[in-house]
Specification:
The chain is built from 8 helices and 4 strands, in the order ααααββααββαα. It is mainly α. The protein has a domain at 55-68 and 134-240: Cytochrome c-like domain (Cytochrome Bc1 Complex, Chain D, domain 2, Orthogonal Bundle). The strands form 2 sheets. Strands 1-2 form a two-stranded antiparallel ribbon. Helix 3 (48-62) crosses helix 7 and helix 6 (157-166) runs antiparallel to helix 7. The protein is globular and about 85 Å long.
Length: 265
């Protein structure tokens, strides 16, 4: 009997992994449409304007519920902000520090090396404020799916997050929503506790860009993709450089081999 339970648990775990890795299955067969992103591809780069708009959307709309645990204020220089701008942004927040000479923790103004503050002190407080749901940290959210070679023919995490943010609408006839839930075409089971947070004109972009729902979603997804891999551009540049070096080295070694063995034939 114990062996049967172990096998059953293993099969359940395997099914869970398959569902999590395959957004089409997890969402009841609705696959997120592929989008065109400037940061995709070997030579892809981040649009600094989109990154800064995405930071504005995150800060004004998402940060009240979702944290960016692995991002420090100083990392924001990577989206095109100056050190002075980053220091000014950090100064608008308070973080816990200490202990002081009396052994007590205290609050102080944030400085660029500090991590972005979390919206809730702990998971229990987050659940209480969100009808029992736990808002996930967004630092690596676009890395959740898919992974490896699957990303070449499946929607990426960026595609899925964009679809999720723009996939709210009225449920089809006969679909029963749970209390406090919202219908989303791309969320697993189509019921999600997070309300539709992006609306036309929901933010006023500093650069004057029209803040449609789609534009806000694209910008914040671009920002979250950067947040997951702030060194993406540098890593790709290094990869291209190494590849070119290996090509030249291979050609040089081949020419050397031909020269050395020319007299042997």
């Amino acid at each position: 009997m114990t062996r049967l339970r172990t096998i059953a648990r293993g099969m359940a775990a395997t099914l869970a992994v398959i569902l999590l890795a395959n957004p089409a299955l997890a969402a009841g067969g609705v696959e997120a449409p592929r989008q065109q992103w400037g940061f995709n591809g070997i030579f892809g780069t981040f649009d600094r304007g989109a990154l800064q708009r995405g930071w504005q959307v995150y800060r004004e709309v998402c940060a009240s519920c979702h944290s960016l645990e692995f991002i420090a204020f100083r990392n924001l220089e990577g989206i095109g902000l100056t050190p002075e701008q980053v220091a000014a942004i950090a100064g608008e927040f308070e973080v816990q520090a200490g202990p002081n000479d009396e052994g007590e923790m205290y609050m102080r103004r944030a400085i660029p090396p500090d991590r972005l503050p979390k919206p809730f002190p702990n998971a229990a407080a987050a659940r209480v404020a969100n009808n029992g749901a736990l808002p996930p940290d967004l630092s690596l959210i676009v890395e959740a799916r898919p992974f490896g070679m699957e990303s070449f023919y499946k929607p990426t995490g960026a595609d899925y997050v964009y679809a999720l943010l723009t996939g709210y609408h009225e449920p089809p006839e006969g679909f029963v929503l749970g209390a406090g839930m919202y219908y989303n075409e791309y969320f697993p089971g189509h019921q999600i506790a997070m309300p539709p947070i992006l609306n036309d004109g929901g933010v006023t972009y500093v650069d004057g860009t029209e803040a449609t729902q789609s534009q806000q979603a694209r910008d914040v997804v671009t920002f979250l993709t950067w947040a997951a891999e702030p060194n993406l551009e540098e890593r790709r540049q290094m990869g291209v450089g190494v590849t070119l070096f290996l090509i030249v080295l291979t050609a040089f070694l081949y020419a050397t081999k031909r020269k050395i063995w020319a007299d042997a034939h």
